[in-house]
Amino acid sequence: MEQLPHCETLLLEKHGPALFLTINRPDVRNAMSLQMVAELSTIFNQIEQDNTIRAVVIRGKDGHFCAGGDIKDMAGARGQKADEGQHDPFYKLNRAFGHMIQQVNESSKVVIAVTEGAVMGGGFGLACVSDVAIAGPTARFGMPETSLGVIPAQIAPFVVERIGLTQARRLALLGLRIDAREACALGIVHQAADSETQLEELLQATLERVRLCAPNATAETKALLHRVGHEPMNKLLDSAAETFAEAIRGPEGAEGTMAFMQKREPKWADDSN
Length: 273
Known about the structure:
The structure is a single chain. The strands form 2 sheets. Strands 1-2-3-4-6-9 form a 6-stranded mixed β-sheet, sandwiched between helices. It folds into 2 domains: about 10-210, 2-enoyl-CoA Hydratase, Chain A, domain 1; about 215-270, Orthogonal Bundle (Lyase 2-enoyl-coa Hydratase, Chain  A, domain 2). The chain has helices at about 35-45, 70-80, 90-105, 120-130, 155-165, 165-175, 180-185, 195-210, 215-225, 235-250, 250-260, and strands at about 10-15, 20-25, 55-60, 110-115, 120, 130-135, 140, 175-180, 190. Helix 1 runs parallel beside helix 3, helix 5 packs across helix 6 and helix 9 packs antiparallel against helix 10 (about 235-250). By secondary structure, the protein is α/β, with parallel strands linked by helices. The longest helix has 17 residues, at about 90-105. It comes from Marinobacter santoriniensis NKSG1. Keywords: Isomerase. InterPro entries: ClpP/crotonase-like_dom_sf, Enoyl-CoA_hydra/iso, Enoyl-CoA_hydra_C, Enoyl-CoA_Hydratase/Isomerase.
């Protein structure tokens, strides 16, 4: 991504190997519109081919992460009728979000969610597909769908993967809202900051660890983790051994070993590379 594209719902800034992606709809607590879904999907599609980007930091502008789906889009879909043989407009709206969140989930980049204020519905789902989630002191998480007469159709599977069926049942069936501390205890987020200052410190510490880890090895490891539970273990371990052999004989394996022996940082830790 030589030049960052212009987005109407997102702010994009590149700092070293990290792309900072800020949801920019503060007037509606960064609620997720169809346009935002399309722009997120476009960005994640483009960065997949960009080796200079190793991490994506997602956060919301002006104190809120994302308050869920945009009511205006839902109202618009209600006024539309499905053409004969076509899917219901509500299906298309909901499924578009599902495609995007799956794309974020399976991205080869390290996805870091910095959550503050409202982290509801689709925003909650976005936090649940991050590789690292950090919560600020104002963060409030929830799956309010059942209290609104709808279902968390696209996020529920990812919530179950994140925290397990038992806890997902409680949150989803009661439409609960929880604070950052409980979200951390449940495993929705990995760290909960006591202050805005600490939140930034935790983010910088995470980005420092991304800098020190080999990009290709990180991407292969993430892909391997996603395969667990979806294929026979023997087949998975055979495949993982082949990938391991390729990695240790490859340029990153050679450089990592040499850097360790020479007591220096590996070349990939240089932000200018």
